[in-house]
Amino acid sequence: MSGLSPSELILIAGILAVMSVVAGILAGLLGVGGGIVLVPVLFWILSLTDFPSEIAMHMAVATSLATICFTSVSSARAHHKRGAVDKGLLRLWGPWIAAGALLGGLASRLFEADGLKAVFGGLALLVAINMAVPKTLVISEAMPRSRAVNAGLSLVTGFLSALMGIGGGTLSVPLLSAFSVETRRAVGTAAAFGFLIAVPAVIGFVVAGWNVPDRPPLSLGYVNLVAAAIILPFTVGFAPLGSRLAHAVDTKLLRRLFALFLAITAVRMLLEVLG
Fold it and tell me: Nearest 10 degrees: CA dihedral of 193, 218, 236, 175?
């Protein structure tokens, strides 16, 4: 990236800032988590430069998670004020989600770039299909009674969310909805899950990437502090706006449009793996 001209660096920073606004609004509005937008954008930006391709996806995922540490707090507080955060679910799933996220972060070094792309692309495509289907998938009329089942579901959710670089909403909202948790309560609780995913996952990515060569300046492990500093003011600032909109507008059309964007992004990433 050091070979870029000042005008190119300004353009990249501008693109990142605009997409960070979008990510912040979506984090509060749809409960999908801003990471589902930030990861492909960060990866795309790195791919435009001479950045080493073997760690570009790792840097994108880890840097996205670093921003979610803060964005999730902003979004969760806004939802909590409206009574949309289920404290019982937080106590039940929280510890296991955090453990899974830490494991995901630490395990990231075992994945090659194509492995992370495949995880992101495959799961993002499933999420897009779920968002596009008008009828919500329902597995049960209530949450599982077994603590072991709840532990397993939340552990896997945390692990996969860490490897994708996303907060709690993208995977946990559809999962909670499948167990008949009311949508706004699922979205609000998932925002709180985002913090429990992002913090331990970032720790894992910092440890996993600590001695990896060819990382850009001002990086902690796989987390780039410069990109995070550009993203944070916009995602944190605009997440509450998304939360307010979620309680005021019909999001069905917006969900389907976002599902289309997500499907295209996922397919492109999967094609890169296959190609």
Answer: -20
Residue 252: other Cβ atoms inside 10 A: 10
- In tens, the pLDDT along 109-158 reads 999 999 999 999 999 999 888 888 877 778 888 899 899 999 999 999 99
* Helices (H), ranges, the chain: 6-29, 35-47, 53-81, 87-107, 113-132, 147-164, 169-178, 183-208, 225-246, 252-274
pTM: 0.88
Closest C-alpha among 55, 108, 72 to residue 224:
55
CB atoms within 10 A of CB 73: 17
Name the token pair of 22: 């979008």
State CA 72 to chain mean position distance. Answer: 10
Is-contact 162 136, C-beta < 8 A? no
Q: Which sign does the torsion angle of CA 202, 203, 209, 215 carry?
A: positive
Report yes or no: 154 and 93 within 8 Å, Cβ to Cβ.
yes
Packing angle of the helix pair 113-132, 53-81 (nearest 10 deg): 40
Other Cβ atoms closer than 10 A to 189:
29
The token pair that represents 194 in the structure block: 């985002």
